[in-house]
Amino acid sequence: MTTLLDILTFRTFLAPYALPFFYYLGALGVPFAAWGLLVWLRRRYGRLDQAIQTGGELARRYTRRRDRVLFLLLFLAAFLFMELMWRLLFEYLIAFLQMREALLLQVGQ
Question: Is the pTM of this model over 0.70?
Answer without folding.
Answer: yes
